[in-house]
Amino acid sequence: MIILKTKDEIEQMRKAGEILAACHREIKKLIRPGITTNEIDQFVEKFLKQHGATPEQKGYKGYAYATCASVNDVICHGFPSAVPLKDGDIVTIDMVVNLNGWLADSAWSYPVGNVSEQAAKLLAVTEASMYKGIEQAVVGNRIGDVSNAIQKYAESNGFSVVRDFIGHGIGQDMHEEPQVPHYGPPGRGIRLKAGMVMTVEPMLNTGAWQSKIDSDGWTARTIDGGLSAQYEHTIAITDDGPIILTKQ
């Protein structure tokens, strides 16, 4: 069942999104060769506490961290670690913020030092593909219009779209209906209505789109060792167009 949000409820989610966006702005300043994703995770937990919020994913199905930290060939759900980031790495930091029971979800990929031309293009195209999808998130369109816009842009730039992990509705629960794939034909799926709140979070790979899961049961990697990037916003569908609740 899709839970439509009132204007007041969307405003509560926007406040959570403001904290999340501010946290990402601070993370951008921290990213450098030598820092560990454990240190970033600890910073995020402290930052959220200082702003009266909590990390929703900590404790979710036993997950032990405030963030997911996915480096290079890790697509998503990577564990923060004590391994220092190196010059040329790319890292995605994903978090869900809970403020007074309302949630916001956003992932962002960052270059570490000087990255390759391929990595820089992957980051740029992945971010742009997210916005291509968001542009289609208007009342009367279908989920497939969002999905297709992402896939079309990504593949036209030479990258593959991960199919095993998708966007989702969000509100007081982290994962609500509807499901939001980042691939597929236009004109399919449910029609978008005012009051829907969902994530648009494409993951693009330099190689094949398929993934494999590490022995920890969480960490998803590219099947061929290629790089992967992800950008994600939480958006609200309104009669005046989509509103990005996690806008940085």
Task: Based on the model shown, name its key terms.
alpha+beta; 248 residues; 4 helices; Creatine Amidinohydrolase; 4-stranded antiparallel sheet; 3-stranded antiparallel sheet; single chain
Write the layout of secondary structure elements.
Elements: H1 7-30, H2 37-50, E1 54-55, E2 68-71, E3 74-76, E4 90-99, E5 102-111, H3 117-135, H4 143-156, E6 160-161, E7 167-169, E8 176-180, E9 197-200, E10 203-205, E11 211-213, E12 220-222, E13 228-230, E14 233-238, E15 241-244
Antiparallel strand pairs: 1-4, 2-4, 3-12, 4-5, 6-10, 7-8, 9-14, 10-13, 11-12, 14-15
Helix pairs in contact: 1-2, 3-4
Describe this structure in words.
There is one protein chain. It contains 4 helices and 15 strands. The protein is an alpha+beta fold. The protein has one domain: Creatine Amidinohydrolase. The strands form 5 sheets. Strands 1, 2, 4 and 5 form a 4-stranded antiparallel beta sheet that branches. A 3-stranded antiparallel beta sheet has the order 3-12-11, with no helix packed on it.
